[in-house]
Structure formats: structure tokens, C-alpha cells
């Protein structure tokens, strides 16, 4: 059985650990490793086993108290290597039951994989027609990033591998989808317009090595519900993020947002306060949700304002809105936007990424979300106003090749100036990176974020 040292080191509830152990035992076929050192460690924690991705299990279990484990117990001793770890991942592109056994054997041959502990039920749907959840036991020196990349390479034309387990949660009677992986201090990833949890897959695979990472589908996006009557805005999404943090974390989380997701995360920090949001990472932060909040962003945008008004008029006509949306969401157009505008590293624009972004647009209600975001009357508060109310550490990363929120634009300049006035704000321009640093160059973004996380007093 595989332990999750980070979970224990951070004081997971005893009841949660026991519940996770029961769940793991019920569905796991992983072999126990019977070396003396491992047995001694297992006895010290009452044989508790927990999956580094079992956030939903741990949350639902009773937690009457906390246990504290001496970190020395979790370190290699007597010459034995560190304990293996378990992660749950989602593999899209599996559509037939008979494919599961072959997939299992193929994964067992991947470097760094000790065993395939279990494969969940085959679910029809998703961006590649069907998917399964797979729990892996990894060698101590294998990374989640390297293993998921190797599994993806088994059949890159068919498979789409995401480094987390999918879960759902009810919020105001709406289904909210999220992914979770890892153990440790919690991080919540908040995507931008047209994005979803899968857009953060590459960054998550780095951060989940040392943290418990949640990637959430905001209301109206991804696999979350898309109600037509919702008033989509950064304020609404901030309330969702705050409630999510209060539901799934004990002492708050660090929020990492991109574009409009940054604006929503920043708004959540103001609404939730220090006990809910412990720190902020803003990736190419948007100034507002739509043109109604961008009137102060310079002469050019003011000059283009009549164009935006014309687009809003067209979107108000359902027939034309559908035509425009269908053209906007086509796979060819998504790839064109990514390669020509959003990304600098063209190798990051894969078929998998295009499918991740395309699939949610086929859901009922997706066109209504598209229209409401572009035409909504609540574009959100400006970052300049919000930052005056934020009293937590903030890391700002900005791709210097961003065509949408440029590094020499008003929002980026505001943060550059703010860094000179506040010790708790750090700004870094990332050379040769576009609008989505977390996916354009995830390895670079991850290094800055890890350094920031290590500086926090959690």
C-alpha cells in the first residue's frame, strides 16, 4: 500500500485517512510491499493509506481530530528508498471495454510506474468519446508530469491524458466539475474565458508533486452546468471560488488565475478575505470581462468601442449569435487563435488542447454563456481598485508576447508600478511567452509559482 507523505505531514484528519484507506482497499489490487521499514511506518499510522488524488473521499469522511506524524518517519531510513506514491489520472479516448486490459498492460510498461492499482468504470462522452479514471502507483523518483506524458505518447493520436481525477460538487443547485490531484497545502486553479480545468493540466502536473491542487470549471464552462439565466460575471465566479475554498480547504488556499480567471481570483480575495485566500498568482490578468470595463484602457480601445457595440448588437439576435458562435468555436478557428494570438510556443498547441477547449462548446447553453460574457452589464471591478483592498502576497506573471493583454498595457504597467510600492507584490515578465503562461510554458510558470509558494507562511 502506498502512503502519501505530504498528506500526513500536513495533518490530514484521522477519520479522513481511515476512510480513504477503506476506499482504497475496496477497489485496489496493488500489492503490499513487505519490507520491514515500510511495515514499521505503516504501523505508526495505523496502516492508513490515502490516495494523493482522493480529495472527495477525504472531504466526506468524519474528522474528529488531527494526527501529527514526525517527518522523520516519512524519510528514507536504513538505506531503503522513499515510499512510492499514488496518483489518479483521467484517460480520454477509451471507448470499448475490451480496450481496458490492453491499456492497463501498456501503462504498466511505462517507466516510473510500479503498478496500475485500479481502473474505474468506462464512461461514455468527453472530448474523445469515452474515458476512465486510473490510479497509478509511482516510483518515488518518478514525476506525475513524466508519467502522464509517457502515457499520452502510447497513442498520441487517440488518447488525451489529464493528470487528475474528475469530481463534481453542487453549488447553488448547479453541478460544478473540478479535478484534484496531490497532497499538501491547497491550490485552486481558475481558468479564463473559454477555458476549463483541462487547460491547467500541464501546470497541475508540476504543482501536484508538493501540493493538493484543484482545477475548477467555472459555472458556464467546461463540464460545469451552463444555466441560461445566470448573470455571468467575475463577481459570480468569485463567489463560486470562495465557496469552493471554504468547502474543500480547512484554512484557505492559494488561487492561481489566468486572464478573466485572474480577475475572478482577485475578486475572490477581496470577497473571501485572508482566511479564504492565502495568496494570489495572477497570469496575464484581464482588466475586465468585456468592453464595458475597458473604457479607461487607452485611446485605441475607445476608438474601437463602436465596433464592440456593433458586435453586441449582432449577438443580441439569436440567429446571428449562433452563426458567429459556431464559427468562433470551430476546431480550425481555435487552433488559429491559439497559434497566431494566444501562444508563443507552437509545440504547446496540440490536438489534445484543441479538443479540451472545443468539447464544452458543444454543450447546451454554451452559446448563451458566450453571448452573456460579451454583452454582460457587470464586467467586474478593475484590478487597480481590487488591489487596494488586497492584503495578501501576490505574484504576477506576464507573458511578454501577449497580444490580448499586452505587457506594455495599462494593467501590466499598473502591477509593475505597484511592485515598487508594495513588498508583498512581485511582478515578472516572461520572455517569449503569450497570454497563457501556465500552458504556453508550464515549466517556467511552475518554477516561479513554486518559489512563491515556498515563501508563504501557510
TrEMBL record:
GO cellular component term of the entry, any: chloroplast
Residue span, AB hydrolase-1 domain: 187-443
Gene Ontology biological process terms, A to Z: chlorophyll metabolic process
GO molecular function: chlorophyllase activity
PANTHER family in alphabetical order: AB HYDROLASE-1 DOMAIN-CONTAINING PROTEIN, ALPHA/BETA-HYDROLASES SUPERFAMILY PROTEIN
Protein name: AB hydrolase-1 domain-containing protein
Lineage: Eukaryota, Viridiplantae, Streptophyta, Embryophyta, Tracheophyta
Amino acid at each position: 500500500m502506498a502512503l502519501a507523505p505530504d498528506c500526513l505531514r500536513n495533518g490530514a484528519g484521522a477519520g479522513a485517512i481511515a476512510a480513504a484507506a477503506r476506499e482504497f482497499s475496496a477497489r485496489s489490487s496493488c500489492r503490499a510491499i513487505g519490507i520491514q521499514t515500510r511495515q514499521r511506518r505503516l504501523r505508526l499510522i495505523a496502516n492508513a493509506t490515502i490516495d494523493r488524488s482522493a480529495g472527495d473521499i477525504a472531504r466526506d469522511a468524519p474528522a474528529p481530530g488531527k494526527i501529527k506524524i514526525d517527518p522523520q518517519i516519512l524519510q528514507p531510513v536504513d538505506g531503503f528508498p522513499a515510499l512510492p506514491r499514488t496518483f489518479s489520472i483521467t484517460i480520454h479516448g477509451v471507448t470499448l471495454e475490451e480496450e481496458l486490459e490492453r491499456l492497463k498492460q501498456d501503462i504498466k510498461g511505462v517507466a516510473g510506474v510500479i503498478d496500475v492499482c485500479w481502473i474505474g468504470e468506462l464512461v461514455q462522452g468527453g472530448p474523445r468519446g469515452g474515458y476512465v479514471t486510473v490510479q497509478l502507483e509511482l516510483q518515488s523518483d518518478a514525476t506525475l508530469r513524466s508519467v502522464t506524458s509517457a502515457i499520452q505518447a502510447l497513442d498520441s493520436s487517440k488518447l488525451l491524458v489529464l493528470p487528475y481525477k474528475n469530481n463534481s460538487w453542487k453549488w447553488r443547485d448547479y453541478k460544478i466539475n473540478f479535478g484534484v490531484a496531490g497532497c499538501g497545502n491547497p491550490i485552486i486553479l481558475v481558468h479564463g474565458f473559454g477555458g476549463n480545468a483541462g487547460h491547467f493540466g500541464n501546470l497541475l502536473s508540476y504543482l501536484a508533486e508538493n501540493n493538493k491542487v484543484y482545477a475548477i470549471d467555472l459555472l458556464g464552462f467546461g463540464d460545469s452546468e451552463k444555466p441560461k439565466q445566470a448573470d455571468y460575471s467575475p463577481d459570480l465566479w468569485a463567489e463560486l471560488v470562495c465557496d469552493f475554498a471554504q468547502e474543500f480547504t480547512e484554512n484557505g488556499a492559494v488561487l492561481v488565475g489566468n486572464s478573466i480567471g485572474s480577475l475572478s481570483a482577485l475578486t475572490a480575495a477581496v470577497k473571501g478575505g485572508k482566511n479564504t485566500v492565502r495568496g494570489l498568482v495572477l497570469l496575464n490578468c484581464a482588466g475586465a470581462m468585456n468592453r464595458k470595463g475597458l473604457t479607461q484602457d487607452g485611446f485605441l480601445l475607445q476608438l474601437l468601442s463602436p465596433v464592440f457595440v456593433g458586435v453586441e448588437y449582432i449577438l443580441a439576435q439569436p440567429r446571428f449569435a449562433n452563426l458567429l458562435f459556431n464559427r468562433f468555436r470551430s476546431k480550425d478557428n481555435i487552433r488559429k487563435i491559439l497559434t497566431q494570438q494566444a501562444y508563443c510556443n507552437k509545440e504547446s498547441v496540440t490536438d489534445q488542447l484543441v479538443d479540451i477547449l472545443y468539447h464544452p462548446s458543444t454543450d447546451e447553453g454554451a452559446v448563451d454563456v458566450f453571448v452573456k460574457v460579451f454583452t454582460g452589464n457587470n464586467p467586474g471591478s478593475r484590478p487597480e481598485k481590487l488591489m487596494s483592498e488586497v492584503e495578501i502576497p501576490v505574484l504576477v506573471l506576464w507573458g511578454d508576447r501577449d497580444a490580448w493583454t499586452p505587457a506594455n498595457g495599462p494593467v501590466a504597467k499598473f502591477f509593475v508600478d505597484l511592485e515598487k510600492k508594495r513588498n508583498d507584490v512581485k511582478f515578472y515578465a516572461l520572455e517569449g511567452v503569450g497570454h497563457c503562461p501556465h500552458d504556453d510554458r508550464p515549466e517556467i510558470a511552475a518554477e516561479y509559482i513554486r518559489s512563491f509558494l515556498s515563501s508563504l507562511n501557510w
